[in-house]
Amino acid sequence: MPRGRSLSAEERGKFLAFHEAKWSQSRIVKELKRSQAAVKNFLRNPEAYGSKKRAGRPRKLTVASRRMLLREASKGILGSRELYQDLQLPVQARRVRQILNQHPTLTYKKIKRVPQMLIHHKTARVAWATEKVTWTIPDWNNVVWSDEKKFNLDGPDGFACCWHDLRREDLIFSKRQQGGGSLMVWGAFAGGKKCELAILEGKQTAVKYIGTLESFLLPFADQELGPSWVFQQDGALIHCAHIVREWFNEEDMVVLDWPAKSPDLNPIENLWGIRARKVYEHRRQFWRG
Q1: How far is CA 22 from the centre of its chain?
Q2: Are 200 and 212 in contact, with CB atoms under 8 Å apart?
Q3: What is the reported pLDDT for 21?
Q4: Which residue(s) pair with 172 in the sheet?
């Protein structure tokens, strides 16, 4: 049988008071609604009650080992199996996961994919925002925001979630080998005007990037924008190549200075988000033509 709960400090005090008042053990049991064995064990030696260790298999993981495990796990670098192997713990990886799940300050969650922000990145972002804080709406409407975007033919990266009816079979989503391929596009907009979407083929180079700008950006600027427009691009290697900078100078193009690690500052990301939700809705898949 499982052991009952230990007597509380209040119950111990009442037991002693009733015992000194010459109450019988049966009367004490009836009054406090505890077992006869609990009363006998306590009254046999009240001072030693609770000091005896309960029988059972000793824990394999010592207090120091558990503390070391929690300290290493809190760094967020190693998984449960790696913790078990690197720390040479006497328990299996499954037990490691149980211990970590029981800890109130640890939880197992998906790592966010965001650019690594160092101090100089943050400083540059603040300086950029401070310089542009006085810009007016016409100033911002003169900026041509641009970026590339990849669409996977087998749906977006990451986990797909849905509300599942437990009375029906599980829904599955089968991906093809190598993910079924992808499609890379280049786009731009200024104010309420959108540039024609460019379909990019193969690995992109600085020469191909210049070709995209000549075929799509320049016609868009000539037809839709005035002479004072400014071009925005991120710090990708092909964007900052020497041949690309020379082409900007030849075209007398003003390029907006852009802080590194700052895709969230580009409003075209909102357009990509709208387009991605439309493309990927209902977890649809696409096939090569």
Answers
A1: 66
A2: yes
A3: 84
A4: none
Give the predicted TM-score (pTM) of the model.
0.62
**Tens-digit pLDDT profile for residues 246-283:** 999 999 999 999 999 999 999 999 999 898 888 877 66
**φ, ψ at 93 (rounded to 5°):** -60, -35
Q: What is the assigned CATH class of domain 119-283?
A: alpha beta
Core vs surface per residue 229-256: b (16+ CB within 10 A) or e: bbbbbbeeebbebeebeebeeeeebeee
Please say whether the dihedral angle defined by the alpha carbons of residues 176, 201, 240 and 265, taken in this order, is positive or negative. Answer: negative
Angle in degrees, 0-180, between the axes of helices 93-102 and 63-73, rounded to the nearest 10:
80
Using a 10 angstrom Cβ sphere, with 0-12 exposed, 13-18 middle and 19 or more buried, the burial of residue 132 is middle
DSSP code for 237:
T
- For tokens 């000539």, name the residue: 222
CATH number of the domain at 63-102, out of 1.10.8, 3.30.390, 1.10.10, 1.10.3470? Answer: 1.10.10
How do residues 62-100 score in pLDDT, each as one tens digit? 889 999 999 999 888 888 889 999 999 999 999 999 999
